[in-house]
Design a protein that fits this description.
The structure holds three protein chains of three kinds. Chain A is an alpha+beta fold. Chain A contains six helices and ten strands; from the N terminus they run E-H-E-E-H-E-E-H-E-E-H-H-E-H-E-E. In chain A, strand 6 and strand 7 form a beta hairpin. Helix content of chain B is 81%, strand content 0%. By secondary structure, chain B is mainly alpha-helical. Chain C is an alpha/beta fold. In chain C, helix 13 packs across helix 17 and helix 19 crosses helix 21. Chain C starts with a helix and ends in a 22-residue tail after the last strand. The interface between A and C is large, with 72 and 73 residues. Bound molecules: ligand MGD (2 copies), iron/sulfur cluster (SF4) (5 copies) and molybdenum atom. The site of one iron/sulfur cluster has 14 residues of chain A, from helix 3.
């Protein structure tokens, strides 16, 4: 493997609008039920008596949105466990499922900590974000990235993105990066909590 | 629960029961030969041995149901290099084939006994490897409720418990069959059966003991694990608590209490009727416990991450 | 009819080729998509490239809803007349100053509205319809029968004539506008009055000297906003209700260092991204909050030691602040300062007084007031939401007063006003680019001039009477409802009565392309084309103009509204050439040739498009060649003309700048020429309407169904039967009712009823429970969203869902908010949707509630 392409995600800018979700659906002609890029709202907290005036309640909460598709991991657990060797990693580090080989066992779904593989009942095959390989092959950026209204996403070589945006790659609700080494760089939100140490919950997904 | 979940439950339980049965049969056959000669030992075990084959076929058919694209099933061994699922399939098929050959040889009394013994050993080892790979399928870092020592321990426990009690039933039935047909030496068969049943009872009590020791350790592991592990535990002790308790009670009842009575009745001759009832009851109770255990297993796993 | 017959029939009758129809018909499966199979896994880049190789043509497609967004650029890939997918702006590099116009989730789902399984395909009538009505109570439940255009138009024409004959033109109410030309020629129809979007800003804003926020903005432009140090938003959730670039513009200001404070009952997705501080407030109570802030500033101000008030600005540019600055002849007691201090009513508007109403702690009110008064450059912004509350006729006025007191009007980085809808975060009254007129002459025919307030419409039909003005009631007998381009039944207050009214009149006609609520309760439905099937559409925002073209031919038997107007007009005895003298292509061309841009000098305009004789011949229209800035070809390909911006350019807009510098030379269009804190014009206008009355200074008027009305005894704080306040928020799933049925959007944005964690716990309710929400006017059932992001005591439900009323129980299972919002005419007759009292309980009835995206789509006539 020569390169590792990656996503950048700016949690401080994402407003959870799901333009990316729908852009992906549109590009790939996906029906209801098949959503490769999902947006999660993560948050929690409580209302407490205002210390400066206990007669009033004061919000003590945190919340932010996270847009997630396949992370095209450096150690893709999905690929490791797939019995049919239907999952492979190409020269750009893009992890792809070959639908012709897939036996539909859904094992990759159990293995993936990002909820990336999505089963297509119609074809009985597993599907997942293909990082818009066709667009990328022509030097473009994925649809979802170019769709983002908040410019909260970027795309490029992992090392370059790290140089540009830093090394963060695991905040809640994502799993610890050690499991699969996601090809992802994150700018945290002011409320972000580190992976595995969250006190919140996923309030909404799709 | 979906058809898919059931297919996995049926597959794992039947396969493990088959492996267990095969090994239990081997052990019993060994002792029976020493005690009553090859003839009687074969007579005692051949029919049970043959029964394993359709059970395995059934298990594999069930497993196909959990595949979205069963027509592609032969791709399932494409990734022996890294996928435990591929290995499971390979060992599974190998076990089925070798065990079938073994059964065929014993049934038709073909080939030298040494060859049969060698093939038997190979089948047993492949069977053990099969159960090992089955547990490894579930021991992936994203599934904390599966990714513990408890998975192999419980898979092997299931293997032997169900193997023991399935064979217990098989011996009882076999004995009844020969009594009706009036062939062979009833005395010897009766003796062998009682001996086997008391062995089964002792082994099962030990196994259930192990299971009951493992349980609190497992709970402690989950309780101190990741958020996903704790969520699994919360499910086991929340919505699944009733099943969870039922499972423990049934295990204790079947593999403990009934096994104890089995043991008591096996040591004194003339109680074959009671023994038969006990063997059937214990098998059903233990099977139910294992199925419930598996239901909990598949329903309380929680992914790490999203 | 079998599928084959169905196909054959369609193919005989539509302009679609067989091939394209077959592909398109994949969409008829319901949730299935437009064309091609699903793309489940592309093994290699090459395979992927092959799968998407069919380039076809990328045609700029209209996104024409009333969405509050900015008219984003949408391009549809059309191969062989079939829409494959859509993309958005990639016509130039994306920079902060000159950003692309990226479409939102709704725009990107547009193809599923245009080519949705539930598109209306044929004219149809209600099975039991007969001239005069025919089992009118079956409206909403009857079966549909497909009819021919001939029959449909004949029925409409004869009903128009019959009803006019029997009841006069006052027997007809027109709740849209696409048939307005033939209706005007017929002598007109009753129309409705009263604002929707703006709440009280539409009238009061201009009366007091600020803009209404749409045709006239008083927020500075986006580049100047970056100079603000503090941006305070009183109600405003652009992340949902001003999609497109508005959130990005705010983000630019945040990156430039502005602090953001959100004053809102909901910690919105906008606040999630932008807010440095969130001040939760009860709906409809911003007025007392601002009064108390004014009180703090007034009492703490010291011109030398603690200068908080911009006295110079107040004295020069406003009237009504204190007794020394009142219009002539006004009672000196009637001034703002004395009202705030409670000089005469002995009720100082202290933070303690306000906090009891608005729920903000007194210390927090003081801190806010001080921060606003002491920060150098502040933007005081508000969307219309806080003004879409009952009795809020002086809210804009008090809001303006706060801006005036703190001097945040008319200077760079400082502004006070509405930041909403398409104008969010980017004010500026002079557009930088625009299109030409249609060239269609106005009609001169005399028509009746009779209007009924939106809040009284359904009652007028049911009771035969409405409020003409403060002096008189008026009898009326409405027997025909025409829905020509609106979603009135679903979108106006008091839907339960609305349905009753629809079942009372003799004829209901709807023109639409989707089977929404209006359609459901109609007698005759005429299927219209969408903008994707029409000749052209020009729309933009301050800095850009979009030329959307025809993407596909009209599907099935749909027709343009204009065609219908002409055909109907002909049957009413008018000359169709007078109704629509120009072809759709000619109209589009006229708009095109009239396109202009403002030059870099910020003053002169230039023609935008160069048009050659060849272009004209190719378009088949009449016109003269012209030269402009860009070629027709370029405009057509790009589909957009965006004016590049940079800081310091001549397009910069600072509202009220000249006025502030010299108010005498640059008077405002108010009675006094100044900002009117005492505004007699507003009071006179409101008081003439015959609903509730107000004073000329911005006193607090308790809202009907506001916070106080959640109590049966406010003094002793005893809660009543409807103890919670409901905000009917503009929801991400749709634009009002538009797009509500699109499965993708239903899946992405569930229509949940949201409640605070504390209120849920108090009722033993859990996230995901099905709840019944009841107001004084109706009930809905919905899944519950429990969140800490709502102020306790407040709930929200997105407005616009297509009502789905269970006939037996009267419960609306879709959660259309106007089932809950009652018609309550107050003040200037606006609709006060954000003041509504409700109760919530676990639903225990028998109605099954599947997730919305699993509902079968409404397909009125699947076969004929
Ligand atoms: N409870 C509550 N109700 C509200 C609000 C609220 O906050 N709360 N908000 C209010 C506001 S601000 C507004 S602006 C109104 C909007 O109220 P409406 O304007 O009535 O709502 P829309 O859903 O936009 O309806 C437009 C209708 O026109 C149809 N249409 C679109 N284009 C054409 C065309 O070319 N020809 C024809 N014949 N039909 C066409 C669409 O299919 C749709 O049915 O809703 C108001 N209703
Ligand atoms: N997605 C989507 N966007 C839309 C539309 C749509 O239908 N869907 N409709 C468009 C149209 S026509 C219009 S008019 C605009 C309307 O846009 P807005 O006037 O901004 O209305 P909302 O988005 O409903 O509410 C904005 C915020 O105001 C808060 N709010 C409500 N009541 C009060 C109050 O009394 N005080 C304070 N301080 N805050 C309050 C709400 O909690 C919400 O966070 O939206 C436009 N944008
Ligand atoms: S995110 Fe999941 S599916 Fe994608 S490469 Fe990583 S492990 Fe595989
Ligand atoms: S579902 Fe398909 S891709 Fe996933 S592990 Fe099974 S065979 Fe591999
Ligand atoms: S990269 Fe392409 S395939 Fe992946 S989520 Fe984005 S749009 Fe979808
Ligand atoms: S489009 Fe951008 S802002 Fe919207 S949800 Fe996706 S990542 Fe977030
Ligand atoms: S914001 Fe409005 S114009 Fe822009 S894409 Fe969304 S719906 Fe269309
Ligand atoms: Mo509006």
């Amino acid at each position: 493997m020569t390169k590792q392409m990656a996503f950048y995600f700016d949690a401080s800018a994402c407003n959870g609008c799901k333009a990316c979700t729908i852009a992906c659906k549109s590009k790939n002609n996906h029906p209801v039920g098949i959503t490769w890029r999902k947006v999660y709202e993560y948050g929690g907290g409580t209302w407490i008596a205002d210390p400066l005036d206990p007669a009033f309640l004061k919000p003590n909460l945190f919340t932010y949105a996270f847009s997630v598709a396949c992370m095209h991991c450096e150690n893709p657990l999905c690929m490791e466990v797939c019995p049919a060797a239907a999952i492979s990693k190409d020269d750009n580090g893009i992890v792809l499922i070959d639908g012709d080989l897939c036996i539909g066992c859904r094992y990759c779904q159990w293995a993936c900590p990002y909820g990336a593989p999505v089963f297509d009942e119609e074809s009985s095959r597993m599907t997942k974000c293909n990082m818009c390989v066709d667009v990328v092959a022509e030097g473009g950026k994925p649809y979802c990235v170019e769709a983002c209204v908040m410019r909260a996403m970027d795309f490029g070589e992992l090392e370059e993105l790290r140089a540009k945006y830093g090394n963060e790659n695991a905040i809640e609700p994502l799993p610890p990066a050690s499991i699969t080494s996601p090809s992802l760089v994150i700018t945290p939100h002011r409320h972000s909590q580190p992976s595995g140490k969250g006190t919140g919950r996923i309030l909404e997904e799709v | 629960m979906t058809l898919r979940d059931w297919s996995l439950i049926v597959f794992t339980i039947l396969v493990q029961m088959s492996v267990g049965s095969f090994i239990v049969l081997g052990v019993v056959h060994f002792y029976a030969t020493r005690k009553a000669g090859l003839e009687e030992a074969d007579r005692m075990s051949t029919r049970a041995l043959l029964a394993i084959v359709p059970v395995l076929v059934l298990a594999f058919l069930a497993s196909l149901l959990h595949l979205g694209s069963p027509t592609n099933a032969y791709f399932a061994v494409n990734n022996l290099g890294t996928s435990w699922l591929s290995r499971e399939i390979l060992f599974g098929v190998s076990f089925a084939v070798i065990a079938t050959i073994y059964a065929f040889l014993q049934w038709r009394k073909l080939g030298p006994v040494v060859l049969r013994i060698i093939i038997g050993w190979i089948a047993a080892l492949v069977g053990l490897a099969l159960v090992y790979s089955m547990s490894n399928v579930y021991m992936i870092p994203t599934q904390p409720s599966w990714n513990t020592f408890a998975t192999p321990v419980s898979f092997y426990a299931t293997t032997f418990l169900l193997g023991l009690f399935a064979m217990g039933v098989a011996f009882v039935a076999n004995y009844a069959y020969y009594q009706r047909k009036k062939v062979g030496c009833a005395e010897a068969q009766c003796e062998l059966m009682r001996g086997a049943l008391s062995g089964i009872a002792v082994a099962s009590i030990i196994l259930v003991g192990i299971e009951l020791v493992v349980l609190p350790v497992y709970v402690a592991v989950l309780a101190t694990g990741s958020a996903a592990a704790m969520e699994s535990l919360r499910m086991m002790t929340g919505p699944y608590l009733a099943l969870f308790i039922l499972r423990i009670v049934l295990s204790f009842l079947g593999a403990g209490v009934l096994a104890f009575f089995l043991y008591r009745n096996a040591s004194s001759p003339g109680r074959e009727k009671v023994l038969a009832y006990l063997a059937y009851a214990a098998f059903i109770v233990v099977l139910a416990a294992e199925v419930i255990g598996r239901i909990i297993f598949y329903n309380t796993h929680v992914n790490i991450g999203l | 009819m079998s599928e084959n017959n169905f196909l054959k029939k369609v193919l005989n009758e539509t302009a679609l080729s067989r091939r394209s129809f077959l592909k398109w018909s994949a969409a008829l499966g319901g949730t299935a998509v437009v064309a091609g199979g699903i793309n489940y896994g592309l093994k290699t880049a090459q395979a992927a490239a092959e799968a998407t190789a069919m380039e076809g043509e990328w045609i700029t497609a209209a996104c024409w809803h009333n969405c509050g967004g900015q008219r984003c650029l949408l391009k549809a890939q059309v191969v062989d007349g079939v829409v494959q997918k859509v993309k958005t702006d990639d016509t130039h590099e994306d920079t902060d100053d000159y950003p692309q116009l990226r479409a939102c989730a709704r725009g990107r789902s547009q193809q599923h509205q245009v080519l949705g399984a539930d598109r209306l395909k044929y004219p149809m009538k209600r099975k039991n319809w007969e001239p005069g009505g025919g089992k009118k109570e079956l409206r909403g439940q009857d079966e549909w029968v497909r009819i021919s255009w001939e029959e449909a138009l004949d029925i409409c024409a004869s009903e128009f004539l019959r009803i006019k004959e029997a009841y006069g033109n006052e027997g007809i109410v027109e709740l849209g506008s696409t048939l307005s030309r033939p209706i005007q020629m017929l002598g007109g129809a009753i129309k409705t009055w009263g604002t929707t979007s703006w709440g009280t800003w539409y009238y009061t804003g201009p009366f007091i000297g600020l803009g209404d926020g749409l045709s006239n903005t008083s927020n500075n432009d986006r580049l100047d906003m970056r100079k603000s140090n503090l941006i305070v938003i009183f109600g405003g959730n652009p992340a949902w209700s001003s999609q497109g670039n508005a959130m990005k513009f705010y983000m630019d200001a945040k990156k430039a260092g502005a602090k953001f404070i959100f004053i809102d009952p909901f910690y919105s997705d906008s606040a999630m991204v932008l807010a440095d501080e969130w001040v939760p407030i009860r709906p409809g109570t911003d007025h007392p909050l601002v009064l108390a802030m004014a009180h703090t500033i007034l009492t703490e101000d010291d011109p030398i030691l603690n200068p908080l008030i911009d006295w110079d600005f107040l004295n020069r540019c406003t009237i009504g602040f204190d007794r020394d600055h009142l219009p002539e002849g006004v009672d000196p007691k009637e001034n703002f300062k004395d009202y705030v201090l409670g000089t005469y009513d002995r009720m100082p508007k202290t933070p303690e007084w306000a906090s009891e109403i608005c729920g903000v702690a007194p210390y927090k009110i003081r801190a806010l007031a001080r921060e606003i008064a002491m920060t150098k450059r502040v933007s005081l912004l508000t969307a219309w939401s806080a003004a879409r509350t009952n009795n809020s006729d002086t809210w804009p006025q008090v809001f303006m007063t706060l801006g005036a007191m703190t001097g945040n009007i008319g200077q760079s980085g400082r502004m006070t006003g509405v930041s909403c809808w398409e104008r969010t975060a980017n004010g500026g009254n002079q557009f930088l680019v625009g299109s030409g007129g249609s060239g269609v002459p106005r009609l001169e025919d005399e028509a009746i001039n009779m209007t009924v307030n939106n809040n009284e419409l359904w009652d007028a039909i049911l009771t035969g009477q409405y409020t003409k003005d403060a002096t008189a009631k008026q009898d009326v007998n409405i027997q025909m409802i025409v829905h020509d381009g609106s979603s009135s039944l679903n979108q106006k207050v008091g839907m339960t009565k609305g349905i009753e009214a629809h079942r009372k009149v003799e004829f209901v006609l709807t023109l639409n392309f989707v089977p929404n609520t209006n359609v459901k309760y109609s007698d005759v439905v005429l299927p219209v084309t969408t903008m994707w099937e029409r000749a052209g559409y020009f729309k933009g925002n301050r800095e850009h103009l979009i030329w959307a073209r025809k993407v596909i031919d009209p599907i099935f038997e749909t027709r343009d509204d204009d065609w219908i107007a002409a055909e109907l007009g002909a049957r009413l005895g008018f000359d169709p050439m007078v109704i629509w003298p120009l072809t759709p292509e000619q109209i589009a061309f006229n708009q095109l040739k009239g396109c202009w841009t403002l030059n870099a000098d910020g003053a002169t305009k230039d023609t935008l498009v160069t048009i050659t004789a060849d272009d004209i011949a190719e378009l088949g229209v009449e016109g003269e060649p012209q030269t402009g800035k860009i070629s027709l070809q370029e405009f057509k390909e790009k589909g957009i003309y965006a004016v590049p911006r940079r800081e310091g350019d001549k397009y910069t807009f600072i509202s009220h700048q000249a006025f502030r510098a010299d108010p005498e030379a640059n008077p405002l269009k108010t009675t006094s020429g100044k900002l009117e804190i005492h505004c007699q014009a507003n009071a006179d206008f409101v008081n003439s309407k015959g609903f509730t009355t107000i004073r000329a200074i911005p006193t607090y008027n308790k809202a009907t169904e506001g916070y106080e009305d959640t109590f049966s005894d406010f003094e002793n704080k005893v809660k009543g039967d409807f103890p919670l306040q409901l905000v009917t928020i503009h929801h991400r799933r749709r634009s009002h009712s538009m797009l509500d049925s699109v499965p993708w959007l239903r899946e992405a944005f569930p229509q949940e009823f949201a409640i605070s964690q504390i209120d849920a716990e108090a009722r033993g309710l859990k996230h995901g429970d099905i709840v019944k929400v009841t107001s004084r006017h109706g009930s809905v059932i919905r899944p519950l969203l429990v969140t800490e992001r709502l102020m306790p005591g407040v709930c929200y439900l997105g407005e616009g869902a297509w009502a789905e009323v269970d006939e037996a129980s009267g419960i609306d299972k879709a959660g259309a908010t106007n089932t809950l919002n009652g018609a309550i005419p107050t003040g200037q007759g606006h609709q006060g949707w954000n003041t509504c009292n409700v109760q919530v309980e676990k639903y225990t009835g028998l109605i099954e509630l599947l997730p919305d995206h699993k509902w079968p789509q409404r397909i009125p006539v699947e076969e004929a």
